[in-house]
Amino acid sequence: MSNTAANQDRFGALVAATSDVVYRMSPDWEVMYELDGRGFLKSTSEPLKNWRNHNVHPADLQMVNEAISWSIATKSMFELEHRVLRADGSTGWTISRAVPILNDAGDILEWFGAAKDITLRKQTEHELQQAKELAEQQQRLYETVTSNTPDLIYVFGLDYRFTYANKALLEMWGKRWEDAVGKTLLENGYEPWHAEMHEREIDEIITTGKPIRGEVDFPHAALGNRTYDYILTPVFDSSGLVVAISGITRDVTQRKQQEQEKFRLSAELALLNEAAEATNEELNAANEELQTSQNRLSEANRNLELILNMLPASVVVIRGYDLVVELINESNLKYWNKSKEEVLGKRFLDILPDLADQPFAGQLRKVMDTGEVIDVKESPVLFTMPDGTIRETYVDYTYQPLADAFGNRNGVLVMSFEITERILSKRLLEKYTAELTQVNKSLSIANNKLAASEARFKFFIEEAPVAIGVLHARELIVETANQKILEVWGKSPEIIGLPLAQALPELSGQPFLGILDNVFMTGVPFYANEISAMLNHGGELKEIFFNVVYQPVVGQDGAVSDILIVATDVTEQVHARRSIEQSEQHFRKLADLVPAKISNALPNGMVTFSNQHWLDFTGMSFENLRDFGYYQIMHPDEIASFKKGLEVAAANGTPHVAEMRFKDRNGNYIWHLNISSPILDEEGKVMMWVGSTTDIQTIKEEEQRKSDFVSMLSHELKTPVTSIKGHVQLALRLLSRETLSPSLQKLSTSLSRIDVLLLQLTGLIRDMLDLSRIDAGRMDLKVDHFAIDTLVKEVVEDFRLSHQQYVFHLETAANIFVHADRDRISQVLINLIANAIKYSPKSNQVDIAVSTTENEVLIDIKDYGIGIEAKDQTKIFERFFRVEGQNEKYFSGFGIGLFLAHNIISRHGGEILLESERNQGSVFTVHLPI
Predict the structure, then answer these.
(1) If DSSP codes are grouped into helix, strand and coil, which group holds residue 216?
(2) What pLDDT is recorded for position 6?
(3) How many whole angstroms separate alpha carbon 261 and alpha carbon 270?
(4) Helix pair angle (897-907, 822-838), 10° resolution
(5) Is the pLDDT of residue 353 over 90?
(6) How many helices (H) and strands (E) does the chain have?
(7) CA distances, 194 to each of 157, 217, 265 (Å)
(8) Angle CA(577)–CA(580)–CA(582) in degrees, nearest 5?
(9) From CA 227, how far away is CA 900, in angstroms rounded?
(10) Rounded percentage of the chain residues whose pLDDT exceeds 90
(11) How far is CA 837 from CA 32, 401, 862, in A?
């Protein structure tokens, strides 16, 4: 054992010296005995059970557990690269290895492991992979550009040999790639003079580092001899030395033949970028390879940008569904009127919001979705300029799909040519052609229209619904007169051809001939409404009113030649308006004669009339009263209810009646009865308001005196009546102890009757005291929580005892609780049931029912008595109201019981409703909130 222990110690020391982390585990890996993290992981010297959550990254936990399970099952070494949670809380990478320590029986005693920090290597591998993917993406972009452009794109080595030729150039030569690339100019079919010219140009470019542009004829394999425009450009390495010469050549044969034809060519050259080599585990080599890839990528980007900017076509590369601009050449920037800073990395529709309602964004996404190539000719593109004007342009464009390294479509190559000038020239030519055609057509039909024009004009005048005539020359010769104007003038067609002064001699002394002469001389039209003329109709002069226009007609010499008369007879309208004005004056005088204050107002509340009584009351003129405002003379406490009442009146089409206070000329508020009646149109909308306001200050003062008297009387009566009631009840108790003689029996009966009458008198005094409390605002409620059904039963039982000749039907649910003043509700019930008995002389039945709704208690008290007429039902709850007529003499009372009942229920937030017909009985329904 000692040798084994020594060997283990030596092995542990070796591992500790060569590793970043050393650890020991239990046989089942559930307990970490020891961990020396050395700053990479958190160290532990105590056994730790939950070590995986402390050290293993959550995303790799399943992978680590599976590897541990396999190593335990096979008793073989554990080895795995995975992410860990470093001592500083960040994420790191490690390669961890652990070997099992076995006993003589082959059972695992523990695991001894070591781990190495490989975070930096993993980061380098990730960066290399990103650089590789970017390089491959650039390579695919270059290949797409060069394979889809009709331009000839190529690259020369310094030895004059072709190192690259695109598809278009190979087709022009009629050769394959392997037959052309690596060959010289002469070997690819160039004539000696042509080859020597390009070799001299290549030498000059190598020497000067400057591009060369030229034009040359060259035979095309399929199209024959063509003319080409070419540009040779140096390609520099990172140290600034020319390492190759790139060239782009365009077939300009058609341009030579027709200068108006715009370029419709697109091109883009992409230099091939060598893929990054496999990653190296050693950090220095990896960094060097990464830097090399980045340098190559930068150089490729510079070359691509140089070539793209040489192209006259507009080129832009758009990536992703958000349409972000990744690459753009100078031609496209100029067309968009933008700088690179405004475009690169920005979304297409953020750069050009004007194009949101145009089809381009949808087409770009369609190309990415479907892989379809979209090729559109003569497409309009609209831009909004800073000054708000619209710049209309036209382009030919092609959308070519781009893909990432995995073949997923993620972008679009856009190549376009602006052809605005060509389109505008074409349109201008088409316009001139169409206009010339239209002129010829117009000339061919003008004579026919001219021939029919005079007939149509005469027909129009004759059939027009207004009076029309034409007077010719300064003599005002009647040249044309339709039937309407002849009727207005009271003349026959025989006057046509006569001067107007001769045709209508009665115009002498009237202003019309002078007005017409002024129109003829000045050329200024004359307009008049409701102008009066005396015309001879059947030998009698009649006053006729017109709305008239005298319109001068200018001849070819620019001078007035005729006067067109258009007139409308408005005599009836003038007479009707005058009649209305007279009626209005009559109304105003009548309004001043009545004792009430009368006013009119528009639907918006603007007062249009106030009679003299209003002006005398306020001490203002009508204009001052109107400007001062109706609400300004109204008592502030009543404005809100008045406005609400007007809304109800407007909705129902009924007058709003209210007692209100208005301020007089001395600043005193005077009580008035105000009636505001809406006047409705045919659609039921308010056209105007008519107000009648009557002074009731004296009546109010009388009511106050009556109320004061009632209050005083009730207080004065209460004490003696209470005293009398006490003496009567004492006498009755004394008599109840005696054997009564006939005379004392009569006395006892009289005293009992007096006791009943005193009870009624006490109730009357109580009602009068309540009335005075209401007027003084001192009627308070003592609110309790009680069962209303129990109270109703108690009141009904009292009536059954006191009115045994009556039948009281009671229907009620149980346990109906309310928050109310129990005594006051009892007072209301007693009043309503007593009235049901009182006003039912021919019936001995009263029905009482208690029910509930969602938020109310309903108490119905129904009698079979005399009923109440409809005209009295709206007044039944008013103070001191009693039904007029024969019933008044048969049924006594002061008319305050229902007033008090209504007031008590209203103070509880409820209401009393009435249903009744004459001689059909009544139903009073008390609504109390629960």
Answers:
(1) strand
(2) 44
(3) 28
(4) 150
(5) no
(6) 28, 32
(7) 17, 9, 25
(8) 110
(9) 115
(10) 22
(11) 100, 99, 10
